[in-house]
Write a structure and sequence with these properties.
This protein is of the alpha+beta class. 48% of the residues lie in helices and 8% in strands. It has a 4-stranded antiparallel β-sheet with strand order 1-2-3-4. Strands 5-6-7 form a 3-stranded antiparallel β-sheet. Helix 7 (225-234) packs antiparallel against helix 8 and helix 10 (320-339) packs across helix 16 (463-474).
Length: 517
């Protein structure tokens, strides 16, 4: 009846739910498992990477879109380059069927019609292009094959494709050396050293021209040509001092310089490889270490200086300026023989370099002077002092001769200034060639030159230094003191002037000789 009433009222009946325990029904109770909350799993892959970098999906999408734009731009650029290449590489033909590293082509922008070759080396990623200077297709293929074989080998060895002639190599080297010219020796190269280098390399260029390789690239010159140079230079007529042979040492120094050019430029800059370096050979070193310059005997020195004062400066028919030049040269000659310094050093002396020795006696302070060779003026790059006795009167005479042409020396002026009318008073020093020419004139006019030739001797400016060394050693100056005064090493003095030891110690060596049986 209740169910019927509920259906009529259309309202649900709440039926109480009875929980039946299995325990009450005589069954063992069953444990109900506890539900543990699920831990969040760690993020993996791209999601974790984005989170680590502080990015989200929108950032990634933006990046992909940007990369897509770049790729499209690159593809567009490649197409443009391809179009441009087609314009440049007109009538492109591969030289070898199995190799696409080399092909010939005509340049699209020119109307000449000549073929060019293009070679690519994948290992070095270098490209070489060269005009074949022919419009003939067959000839172009032949030339391209020849060039490929030559250039491909260079590319593999890392050698530069564009080479140099000998003249261009020398110019390249001199251009570099000119940048390090300095007034201080051993900090670069001096102006005089640069001139010497230039002269040495001139010999090599002249030799190469004589062999018919003036326009030959350096890698094409046979290496054995280098061995012929020493004999060519040995037999080359001299421009100066023609009555003496060119020494082996001078030739060997020249060879050393040329080898340096090839090592510093040709090999280091990869214009050639080591295997095609010219095979230079030296001449045998001369064993005799006697002075390399002939020198005057003391009596000859006195004879020559006396003649210059008596006759040379009093020759009839010469101008007053020439008289002054001759007088000053006579004083230069005398000072040079008493200083023992190098030619460059005496010509680079200034009046401020001459002073009094504070350790000298009162008499010495009146007559003697200390000559300071500045580091910039020294071959070794080290300054030094040279003490010279009884020299004040000579210095005063130089000043008095200058005064006659209106020149009053200032402390910073050179001691031996050029006295020609266009240069006098401008503090321009004499250079070695001018003094060498004057010495030659003196030797010939005095008659001493002819006398010396009879004994096979030749005197030049540098002989003054050897005369000084010999004279000092003969008077008992120690080799150590002499080396210090001359700005050289004791070893050099010993090896060069050791032959004098016998003469210096003759009394001890011959002691008791000739007596008895």
């Amino acid at each position: 009846g209740l169910d019927e009433q509920q259906r009529k009222n259309k309202s649900p009946i709440s039926v109480p739910t009875k929980v039946v325990s299995r325990e009450t029904e005589g069954e063992s109770p069953e444990k109900i498992p506890e539900v543990t909350p699920t831990k969040p799993q760690p993020k993996k892959g791209l999601e974790a990477l984005l989170e680590e970098k502080g990015l989200d999906a929108s950032d990634l999408i933006g990046l992909i879109e940007a990369l897509g734009s770049l790729k499209k731009r690159d593809q567009s650029k490649e197409k443009e380059e391809e179009k441009a290449e087609k314009k440049v590489y007109k009538d492109k033909e591969f030289v070898f069927n199995t190799n696409q590293d080399v092909f010939i082509y005509r340049r699209g922008e020119t109307a000449g019609g000549n073929y060019y070759v293009r070679i690519y080396d994948s290992a070095s990623q270098k490209i070489h292009r060269q005009s074949l200077k022919t419009s003939n297709n067959h000839h172009a293929h032949v030339l391209a094959r020849e060039i490929y074989l030559e250039k491909k080998d260079k590319l593999k060895r890392g050698v530069k494709m564009n080479s140099l002639t000998t003249k261009e190599l020398i110019e390249y080297y001199l251009e570099r050396k000119e940048k390090v010219i300095t007034d201080v020796p051993h900090r670069g190269i001096t102006t005089n050293s640069f001139k010497v280098i230039k002269q040495q390399l001139t010999y090599w260029e002249r030799f190469i021209i004589s062999k018919g390789h003036e326009n030959t690239k350096i890698e094409k010159i046979p290496p054995e040509v280098g061995g012929e140079f020493r004999y060519w230079m040995l037999n080359l007529p001299k421009e100066f001092y023609k009555d003496t042979a060119r020494s082996n040492e001078v030739i060997n120094q020249c060879i050393t310089r040329i080898k340096n050019v090839y090592k510093e430029i040709a090999i280091k800059e990869k214009f050639i490889s080591l295997d095609i370096l010219p095979a230079f050979e030296r001449l045998k070193k001369e064993r005799d270490v006697k002075p390399k310059r002939d020198i005057l005997e003391e009596s000859e020195y006195l004879e020559l200086t006396g003649w210059m004062n008596r006759s040379y400066a009093r020759e009839k028919g010469i101008t007053e300026r020439e008289v002054i030049k001759r007088r000053v040269f006579a004083l230069f000659f005398s000072l040079h023989y008493n200083l023992g310094c190098r030619n460059k050093e005496i010509l680079g002396l200034k009046w401020k370099d001459i002073g009094i020795n504070p350790m000298d006696t009162e008499e010495g302070k009146r007559k003697n002077r200390v000559f300071t060779i500045d580091a910039k003026n020294s071959k070794t790059g080290r300054g030094r002092n040279i003490v010279v006795a009884d020299v004040v009167s000579k210095l005063d005479r130089i000043k008095s001769w200058y005064k006659k042409i209106g020149v009053v020396p200032a402390p910073d002026d050179f001691v031996f200034i050029n006295l020609t009318e266009t240069k006098a008073g401008k503090n321009i020093p004499y250079e070695q060639p001018a003094m060498a020419k004057r010495l030659k004139e003196v030797m010939e006019k005095s008659g001493l030159g002819a006398k010396l030739r009879e004994t096979g001797r030749h005197i030049n400016l540098y002989g003054a230094r050897h005369f000084y060394a010999t004279a000092r050693l003969m008077r008992g100056v120690s080799m150590q003191d002499l080396a210090m005064n001359m700005g050289t090493s004791t070893a050099y003095i010993e090896s060069t002037y050791s032959h004098l030891t016998t003469l210096m110690r003759s009394s001890e060596i011959t002691k008791g000789q000739g007596y008895g049986r």
